[in-house]
Amino acid sequence: MTDAATVFEGAKAWPFEQARELLKRIERLEATGRPKDAPVVFETGYGPSGLPHIGTFGEVVRTTMVRRAFEALTDGRYRTRLICVSDDMDGMRKVPDGLPQREMLAEYLQKPLTSVPDPFGTHESYGAHMNARLMRFLDGFGFDYEFKSATDLYRSGAYDAMLVRAAERYDEIMAVMLPTLGAERQETYSPFLPVSPKSGRVLYVPMKEVNAASGEVTFEDEDGSDVTLSVTGGRVKLQWKPDFGMRWAALGVDFEMFGKDHQANAPVYSKICRVLGAEPPHQYVYELFLDQKGEKISKSKGNGITVEEWLAYAPAESLALYQFQKPRTAKRLYFDVIPKAVDEYLAFLAAYPGQTVDQQVENPVWHIHDGAPPAETSPISFALLLNLVSAANADSPDVLWGFISKYAPDASPSTSPLLDRLVGYALAYFRDVVKPAKVFRAPDGKERAALDDLATRLAGARGVNDPEAVQSIVFAVGTEHGFEPLRDWFKAIYEVVLGQSQGPRFGGFAALYGLPETAALIRAALARTS
Q1: Of the four, 92, 316, 360, 485, which is 20 to 30 A from 161 by CA?
Q2: pTM
């Protein structure tokens, strides 16, 4: 056993914990006949009625993290696949908000999404349009995945064997499903949803007969006539809970994660999978994101951050870090978390080269970058850049780089591309998020005297540019003017001078901005509020 293998076996990071559980499952199945050369299948599902969103990203990036941990743990002994399935054969229950040609779309309610015309006019169907957007979305992050359309899986015959088995084991499936339903729903429930050969709609109707021998179902169509259809070839699909379990069985899924909203139904999915003769995958349940008020994020409410919004203000790696951290803890997802996520990413990236191998596999950047984080980091934090934008009233990268080049003379847009990207993000974040919320307050007498003293000492500190030395000056002023605790002093600095309640270490900011410039900034704030 190599040293690396030993490290991976003992790694505490949650992707390795899941990878070890998955390996136990694979080895257990191999002991009962699973081919040793069978690929290990990771799967995620996608509802294409709307655009891919932050949950879509989170599910794929987290699954990828487990996949890479599994590959490292097993030293490449197994082939792995990540399958992304689009449930595009579902009937369109309502016209999603914000779409063009809504009246036209309303004529196609209950038809499979791949049978609904594309209101944008770019693809053969609405489902195909949304699938293309999903693939562009995933490709933009460089994910390694295989796309599968549920419509294609049903119509191509990929699901046929399991659908025939579902007809053979109809009573067993009903025995699983009926206890989960209310009395009224039990009277009409069927796991099979036939597609009407006359209207093309997905029908929620009871079955008059399920013929296990022929693999056919009989039902009453919308016009009142009895129709008999084979369950194969895309003529029939399954209700979503049986479909979940059937998909696991048909695709040989070994690992799937899903949100807490699926947790109550997970035992149903697993029972259906077993009824169909397969072992359910290892499952991982993650917590859902909350908004700033602690309420569940909803696409319809628009009370969260979209992927596009996050990426307008921060690199994708910071979003991946936010997804990596404590996936089983409910976290608030709103604009204020972005700067912290960026700086935490930079800190983890900077720490990585000096860590031991066992520390590195616990470092989130190992998982974000598939075990090979880039060497480049940033000499300046994102929070400092934001304060620099505010202090300098900067509206272009050139202004910021004028200050940065004095603080870090070896850095330039060409030699420090990550820092250059952060400069652009800081300008955008300050303009759209920070500036509209800025509120400056007037200092009280004690604060005014201390700030005036600080400005005088900074202006007279010739040749001092070390952040720690500047921080010592700031500490000394606060102590001598009787601030207890000292955090009240720093809070006063930020609220009076920068119009915010907190920020990075002020010594670092002053060293970056320049001591004479910082002294002038303080005096301007005092003059503004005199």
Answers
A1: 92
A2: 0.92
